[in-house]
Amino acid sequence: MSVDVLIPETTDAAVEAFGDGTDITVIAGGTIVMQLLNYRRITVSKAMLLNKAGLSYLRQSDSTWTVGAMTPLSDLLGMFSPLGACAANVADHEVQYQATIGGNLCAPTPPEHPSGDLQGPLIALGATVRSVGAGGERTDGVEEFLASRAGRLVLDISFETPQAGAFAALDRPHTRHFTALAVSGVKSGDTVRLAATGVGPVGVRLLSAEAAAGDPEAAGNAALADAVLRDDALASAWYRERTLPSLVARVLNEIKEAS
Ligand SMILES: Cc1cc2nc3c(=O)[nH]c(=O)nc-3n(C[C@H](O)[C@H](O)[C@H](O)COP(=O)(O)OP(=O)(O)OC[C@H]3O[C@@H](n4cnc5c(N)ncnc54)[C@H](O)[C@@H]3O)c2cc1C
User: Which element (helix H / strand E) includes 105?
Assistant: First the structure.
């Protein structure tokens, strides 16, 4: 089957080529989508490569950051926690140089393991996502975007520098693995926002844990009410249930020390 390959050279051209997203597959860094193609888990009739579309940028204006969808995770490594620490936890340097923040946000959820680790810190940061598709341009909070991301082309993601932040993940003695479970936390003023990956099909805000944030141990236990835990190739629901409370408590203690 022949594939129509589009390589727009400006953002406007990418937006026009994407249209309402019908029958078009976006290829960013390709670290996920090329595997899906190679293993014939998806078929593509029209592919749009974003590497020349002018979407790789990291802009700061006072405390506001705007990150282009094609920005590689390697450009985020020096950023504040939980974002920088989460990017550093993804696979290895080779993948981090290729993988993009837009691809991570739009990562499909395979049955074998969680994916899209950056969704956690971006939810915790209260980030917003600017996208185009049917109905034109839209700016959504990350959770709203994740709930309606089909048929959208992400342009960029914005967030504020937090007062303090922390990231904790289950660690395994193996390189290049996906993350089984991770918790991100951000403090801004009196507000603490918590989010996790590996506790549902996409990143999840831990609202019950936030309500108990003053007591890290209680917050850890409360987080279980926000999670839909399941077994996959990386960890059992049983193991996640036992480790989620301690990751939440670790993040809250680190935020307390940092602020
Ligand atoms: C060995 C290995 C280890 C990995 N480990 C991890 C890990 O630990 N944690 C983790 O989170 N990920 C991991 N990944 C997955 C992957 O590298 C990251 O999720 C990466 O950020 C995806 O970005 P990409 O640019 O490569 O996406 P792509 O593969 O190009 O695209 C991924 C999906 O997003 C869509 N997409 C891409 N950009 C946009 C856009 N701007 N707008 C709309 N849709 C878009 C694509 O159509 C596709 O469906 C790993 C991958 C490999 C190969």
Answer: helix 101-105
Q: Cα–Cα distance between 196 and 169 in angstroms, integer? A: 9
Q: What is the CATH number of the domain that holds 168?
A: 3.30.465.10
pTM given for the model = 0.90
Nearest to 203 by CA among 173, 226, 219, 220: 226
Residue 219 structural domain: 4-258
Q: Position of tokens 């920088």?
A: 84
Distance (Å, whole) CA 167 – CA 20: 36
The domain tally of the chain equals 1
**Which residues lie with the beta carbon below 6 Å from any ligand 1 atom?**
25-33, 50, 69, 73, 90-91, 95, 98-100, 102-104, 106-108, 115-117, 152-154, 176, 178-179
Dmax (CA) of the chain: 58
Q: Report the DSSP beta bridge partners of residue 61.
A: 64
Query: pLDDT tens digits, residue range 199-242?
Result: 999 999 999 999 999 999 999 999 999 999 999 988 999 999 99
